[in-house]
Amino acid sequence: MRPSHKSATLLVLIPLILLAPVFFPSSFYYRVGALIFINGLAVTGMVILIGYAGQISLGHAGFAGIGAYSCALMPVHWGIPPVLAAVFGAVISALLAWLVGRPILRLKGYYLAVATLGFGILVYMVLTNETWLTGGPDGMNVADSGLRDLAKSLGINMKNSEFWYWLCAIVMVAGVWLAMNLQDSPTGRALRAVHGSEVAARTVGVDVARYKLQAFVISAVYASVAGSMVALQNEFVTPDVSGYMHSIEWVTMTVLGGAGSVLGAIFGAAILTLLPQVLTAFAEYEQLLLGLIMMLVMIFMPDGLLPSIMRRIRGKDE
Amino acid sequence: MSALLSVEGLGISFGGLRAVHDVSFAVKPGEILSVIGPNGAGKTTLFNMISGVYRPGAGRVMLNGEDVTAMRPDLLARRGMSRTFQNLQIFQNMTVLENAIAGFHLTESGSLMADLLRLPASRARARTAREGAMRLLERVGLERAAETDAGNLSYGRLKRLEIARALALDPKVLLLDEPAAGCNAVETEEIDHMIAEVAASGVAILLVEHDMKMVMRISSHIVVLDHGEKIAEGDPATVSRDPKVIAAYLGAEAGEETDA
Ligand SMILES: Nc1ncnc2c1ncn2[C@@H]1O[C@H](COP(=O)(O)OP(=O)(O)O)[C@@H](O)[C@H]1O
Ligand SMILES: [Mg+2]
Predict the structure, then answer these.
(1) What's B1-80+171-260's CATH class?
(2) pTM above 0.90, yes or no
(3) Ligand nearest to the CA of B37
(4) Hey, which of A216, B149, B178, B241 has its CA 20 to 30 A from B165?
(5) CA atoms within 13 A of residue A199's CA, in its CB half-sphere
(6) Quick check: ipTM above 0.85?
(7) How many CB atoms are closer than 10 A to CB A8?
């Protein structure tokens, strides 16, 4: 990866975010946009785990659940403001990822996939079954974060959907900025070395277990913040936020868009968030078409959408 | 001077196969010790045990007076051991330059926070590593391929890239497993010079090489393996006259390939 990747990524992303609202037919699209950014944030974390370090997780929605329920529970029980609760949620996710990651990351490939899947399901089950605490499958309310009022007091008066569009965009861009910093840093290189050849990484002095764990913890924090954003925006959470389908969605978005690059993964997040909206026109064939598109992309563009498209544009055939 | 690296009674079996059995030797700083022997003699396996990739079934490895038997490769790297691989272990997901920079991991890595925030300290470390990597690429003649994806390099050039990456650790002990394989005569001679130069700077070198002319020219000391056992040891002249060595090589030649 060339160092200019960071500026290039931000130069593509920021104008798109700024310009997109011009084409929104209704304020509903601000909501879709915010959802893209929340997924975009989560998949940026997945790029660090999958694209940089070469590890897999089918359980990261579990961390989103922790981020979301931290925002719901901490204000009620400890009087912590919801935004601060999101930060604490991220810390808890990081600690949990560290604890869970240590034994789990010794596993490779599909063993790791199944173990992480198990972790995600475990979180989902706890959130669903501990009704006394979480309200069970019916979910629970999240206190108003007060962020919109804060913006108002600063003279920024926006509709709720617009406000969350911009806030989610800012959080995602911040996440992208960190991930891009990491990519071309010593840590990023160590992670990519682990991906490239574990044995060679070890011989140049990389503590492979430690770096895998770092990638796992960082990506868990991304997922946790994404979950918190969902909770804060909707002012309501259900255990569904930690459902394993979300974990699988994030991996799919990452791989479909191009796991090697943050921009690719966000592109994947945008496509897979938008497609179902577009495909609703096909009613009962929606899921079928979605599945078909995913299969065709992976067969004909195994590197993912964005890298393949870029290669076409540059005319490099390899 | 005393030995920097020594192995004592090293052995390992895979299933019923005794791949290496009771091998001992020692290397001093500045020495080039070559391990030779027919294909399948156990040379690579020996390297894998010394460098912590395989756990030895018997014996010990001593580095600088410390027992480092079965120690993790990354910890050995911290203690000054570095190696290349017979079957290339290149980071295919990186450019040539990044592969070389990766060799500076121990000196360039710092705090995760500094890297995430791209603090000046992190950038400075990365820059130093980058400059060092560039110098090494020049040394192995790959400076013009620096920005190429490593996967696009020819076999001979990848071999040299691995040497550059191994040198980036500024090792005290360097294990080279067939560094000149796949290289033409000119390249082989360059590698030959480079190895001699590195040894002259005080590094203890352990070399596996099939090019006998090169081995005879640069080795201070030779250990001969056959079927996992040490059958001879000594200076190049003595070893090349040893009837057991000649027999082992003739046997191998009759079997399959020619090593000359
Ligand atoms: N991981 C392993 N599992 C099983 N057998 C192995 C393994 N590594 C090496 N061997 C066997 O050990 C013997 C020595 O191999 P090797 O060390 O590669 O020889 P050399 O490098 O001298 O050509 C061979 O018979 C090889 O098949
Ligand atoms: Mg070998």
Answers:
(1) alpha beta
(2) yes
(3) 1
(4) A216
(5) 14
(6) yes
(7) 14
- The H or E element containing residue B229 is strand B229-234
Mode of pairing for the β-strands spanning B204-208 and B173-177: parallel
Integer Cα distance of B129 and B132 in angstroms: 5
Q: Which residues of A touch B78 (CB under 8 A)?
A: 205
Q: Chain A interface, mutation test: which of B47, B93, B162, most A Cβ atoms within 10 Å? A: B93
Rounded Cα gap, residues B144 and A179, in angstroms:
29
Give the pLDDT confidence of A267-279 residue by residue, as tens digits: 999 999 998 888 8
What's B201's DSSP letter?
T
So where are chain B's domains? Answer: 1-80+171-260, 92-168
For the record, the structure tokens of A104 come out as 């789990």
Q: Which ligand has its closest atom nearest to the C-alpha of B223?
A: 1
- Percentage with pLDDT > 90 across chain A: 69
State whether the Cα torsion B210-A204-A186-A51 is positive or negative: positive
Tokens, residue B241: 């006259």
Place of tokens 């002990």: B173
Residues of A with CB under 8 A from a CB of B: 1-2, 178, 181-182, 184-190, 192-193, 195-197, 199-208, 214, 218, 260
Inter-chain contact B53–A199, Cβ cutoff 8 Å? yes
- Residue A246 CA to chain centroid, in angstroms? 10
Question: What is the DSSP-derived secondary structure letter of residue B146?
Answer: T
- Each as own residue / partner, the long-range contacts of residues A144-149 (CB below 8 Å, 24 or more positions apart, any chain) are A144/A82, A144/A235, A145/A71, A145/A81, A145/A82, A145/A83, A145/A232, A145/A235, A146/A81, A146/A82, A146/A83, A147/A83, A147/A232
